[in-house]
Amino acid sequence: xxxxxxxxxxxxxxxxxxxxxxxxxxxxxxxxxxxxxxxxxxxxxxxxxxxxxxxxxxxxxxxxxxxxxxxxxxxxxxxxxxxxxxxxxxxxxxxxxxxxxxxxxxxxxxxxxxxxxxxxxxxxxxxxxxxxxxxxxxxxxxxxxxxxxxxxxxxxxxxxxxxxxxxxxxxxxxxxxxxxxxxxxxxxxxxxxxxxxxxxxxxx
Length: 204
What we know:
The protein is of the alpha/beta class and about 200 residues long. Helix content is about 40%, strand content about 10%. It is built from eight helices and five strands. The model has no long low-confidence stretch (mean pLDDT about 95).
């Protein structure tokens, strides 16, 4: 058995660490408080695993919050804030991140065309920004089990709206495996085994 040569990491039609960026929007206490489409504790575990995966593969992360500077909303939840210490949040007043000049500039600065979207809530902060990104010919990948909405119906409608516009839904586990791609690539294997299996799937 022999692995095929590593495909072009920039041109690959699948997600690679070299052609993608993680977009993380509004994982703040007020947003978590009204999640109704999935268990909040599971949601937090899934987004933490997603961020750990992105960091393992050195994927650029654009981290944004809303209304922290105004004092209206608390900052990113501590479990994520600790992981994102090297990625200072871009604080906004806009509901749609894509209508914030600094946010869009940060996304463009990554020079990546595949955007992995994680945002609360699905039907608002994920959907609006994802639709605008698609309109600008970015590829959009919502991480379906690391985002959530204010109801099951709202979450589903937000995802469907983005998918109908061309978005490609993924899960946090599929993302980790798509980055890893080959177990012969030993550098990241220990971390991915820990993140996906040891800390999560074999525990639950």
